[in-house]
Design goal:
The protein is of the alpha+beta class. It has 3 domains: 86 residues, OB fold (Dihydrolipoamide Acetyltransferase, E2P) (Beta Barrel), CATH 2.40.50; 85 residues, Irregular (Dihydrolipoamide Transferase); 217 residues, Chloramphenicol Acetyltransferase, CATH 3.30.559. It contains 9 helices and 20 strands. A 6-stranded mixed sheet has the order 11-20-19-18-14-17. Strands 1-8-6-3 form a 4-stranded antiparallel sheet, with no helix packed on it. Helix 2 runs parallel beside helix 3 and helix 6 packs across helix 7. The radius of gyration is 27 Å and the shape is elongated.
């Protein structure tokens, strides 16, 4: 009897998944534990593994389609076994992009003598691999993807392949019609482009709606003199030599973690009927990825050295951008930091990530004219804005935390006390 392969909950918050790529094709033998497909979750691209031995006798959900957790995506059984995949799998939660042709094992006929074999490319018996944009352009311009030879990875059909089949079908939008930094294409008279939400963008939308609306935010801003921190950083990096470097962000993470250890009231989660005050300090670090952001967690940050924090932060950021984070690497933060200083943003407010009670927004470090000992001089300054959940943190509580954080950054020796 065939074994059903279902869309598994590959992360703690996953509600649905999109099949990015099938690593096995219909008819392929599979063993328990082997990777069947790559699935885009709300946080990363994860592996869906086989839970039985046999053959992959039917793929129900094609690449590019999204289905809820628990839905049937494929069947594993004995070679030649028949299953009714059309009626047993629940309906998909969202319509797929134009579905690739079903993968059907077929014998490859040899080319007649003296006749050149056809150019390699997808046929009716093969799965057509194409990017979502290429599919949309093909649909709107009437190009048959089966007649297009893909130039992308693994023979995937990409935008330029479809455009070359239909010269002039795509034309640039009029100047000024698109937003800054973007290039909008008008296809066959269309004035806009609808792009399906990725799993991470869906999750961001849900999380923000669950935060900025229900959570009563208030904001506290302070300005920090970073001259001593800058001098300490330069001295530490000289001492480290080839062992690594620390950044201002590493210093802010370390100082924030130490301040949280002293102000447990800010190192907390709001729960339905109680407040959870954490004894351990796990700092979430917002990282921008291709289609959103994710917050890897540096655990026990108050107990780690600046060098260790720097190495871990860079490693987690790289894994986040490659969509390779494991669930325990992006869950469980007790407080978060969002840093836009590298984008020359002076000051901003960040949205709290429930159930956390606070998040720190870090701006750029820039020289400013300030009065020091009765004289005007240029000093490197940093603005910090803390977003607080008023159900957990009162104004004076948040201000006291920021005061401690400011003291640590302005006098780095305070971090060792």
């Amino acid at each position: 009897m065939a074994t059903t392969v279902v869309m598994e909950a590959l992360s703690p918050t996953m509600e649905e998944g999109r099949v990015v790529k099938w690593n096995k094709r219909e008819g392929d033998p599979v063993k328990s534990g082997e990777t069947l497909a790559e699935v885009e979750t709300d946080k990363a691209v994860m592996e869906l593994v086989a839970r039985a031995d046999g053959s992959l006798i039917k793929i129900v959900v094609p690449e590019g389609q999204t289905v809820p957790v628990g839905n049937v995506v494929a069947y594993i059984g004995t070679a030649g076994e028949k299953v009714d995949g059309s009626g047993t799998a629940p309906a998909a939660v969202s319509p797929p992009l134009p579905a690739p042709a079903a993968s059907v094992p077929a014998a490859k006929a040899a080319a007649p003598a003296g006749e050149r074999p056809p150019a390699p490319g997808p046929t009716t018996a093969d799965r057509i691999k194409a990017s979502p944009l290429a599919r949309r352009i093909a649909r709107e311009t009437g190009v048959d993807l089966r007649s297009v030879v893909g130039s992308g990875p693994g023979g995937r059909v990409i935008k330029k392949d479809v455009e070359s089949r239909e010269p002039g079908a795509v034309r640039p939008a009029a100047p000024g019609a698109s937003g800054p930094g973007s290039v909008r294409l008008t296809v066959a008279g269309s004035a806009y482009e609808d792009v399906p939400l990725t799993q991470i963008r869906k999750t961001i939308a849900k999380r923000l709606a669950a935060s900025i609306g229900p959570v009563p935010h208030f904001f506290l801003t302070t300005e920090v003199d970073m001259e001593r921190a800058a001098e300490a950083r330069e001295a530490i990096n000289r001492q480290l030599g080839d062992r690594g470097k620390i950044s201002f962000n590493d210093i802010v993470i370390k100082a924030t973690a130490l301040a949280l250890a002293k102000h447990r009231a800010c190192n907390a989660w709001f729960q339905d009927d109680h407040i959870r005050y954490w004894n351990d300090v796990h700092v979430g670090m917002a990282v921008a990825v291709e289609d959103g952001l994710i917050t890897p967690v540096i655990r026990n940050a108050d107990l780690k050295s600046l060098l260790a924090i720097g190495q871990e932060a860079r490693g987690l950021a790289q894994k986040a951008r490659n969509r390779k984070l494991l669930p325990d690497e992006y869950t469980g933060a007790t407080f978060s930091i969002s840093n836009l200083g590298m984008f020359d943003i002076d000051q901003f407010t960040a949205v709290i990530n429930p159930p956390e009670a606070g998040i720190l927004a870090v701006g750029s470090i820039a020289p400013k004219a300030v009065v020091e000992d009765g004289k005007i001089e240029a000093r490197r300054r940093l603005r910090l804005t803390m977003s607080c959940d008023h159900r957990v943190i009162d104004g004076a509580t948040g201000a006291d935390f920021l005061k401690t954080l400011k003291q640590m950054l302005e006098n780095p020796l305070a971090m060792v006390l």
